[in-house]
From TrEMBL:
GO CC terms, sorted: chloroplast thylakoid membrane
Its membrane topology: Multi-pass membrane protein
Organism for this UniProt entry: Sesamum radiatum
Chain ranges of the Cyanobacterial aminoacyl-tRNA synthetase CAAD domain: 74-157
Keyword terms of this UniProt record: Membrane, Transmembrane, Transmembrane helix
Protein name: Protein CURVATURE THYLAKOID 1A, chloroplastic
Protein's cellular compartments: Membrane
Superkingdom classification of source: Eukaryota
Chief subcellular location: membrane
């Protein structure tokens, strides 16, 4: 029993021994530093091209610039034109909560083994069916266009 205890203590002492941080032990040399990815010639060339692309792009007129004051004044006018501000705030908050809950649900589904792959297969199957049903033939494309127009009219309230 005493031998086993001394053996485990010796092993612990050997495992706990650390080399001093100031100078390396004989035979142990630190590995050379790898060059960072941004210093490789390929990345330097890519950065050079990116900056030259940014320099080449120029606007021919001053109309395309966006004025922040104009943007805020337009938003303020539109907000003042809204009659039911509480409803807009409630709908906006509900949309934020719905996106948050959807991200939680997607994270939970993604953590289940095999379920994400099955969902991908279902999505691919539905996409294939949709392409065959609505996009492959001219008559079915016309049918899809009329269905979309009918839905637009229902949403806009003109029907």
């Amino acid at each position: 029993m005493a031998v086993a205890a001394s053996t485990s203590m010796a092993a612990t002492a050997v495992l706990m021994h650390r080399l001093p941080a100031t100078k390396p032990a004989a035979g142990f040399f630190p590995l050379p530093q790898r060059p960072s990815l941004s210093s490789t010639p390929f990345n330097q060339l890519k950065e050079c091209r990116r900056s030259s692309q940014l320099l080449v792009k120029a606007s021919s007129s001053d109309e395309s610039s966006i004025d922040a004051n104009e943007l805020f004044s337009d938003l303020k006018e539109k907000w003042d034109a809204v009659e039911n501000k509480t409803t807009v705030i409630i709908y906006g908050g509900g949309a934020v909560v719905a996106v948050w809950l959807a991200s939680i649900l997607i994270g939970a589904v993604n953590s289940v083994p095999l379920l994400p792959k099955i969902m991908e297969l279902v999505g691919l199957g539905y996409t294939g069916w949709f392409v065959y049903r609505y996009l492959l033939f001219k008559q079915s494309r016309k049918e899809l266009a009329t269905d979309i127009e009918a839905i637009k009219k229902k949403i806009a309230g003109s029907e």
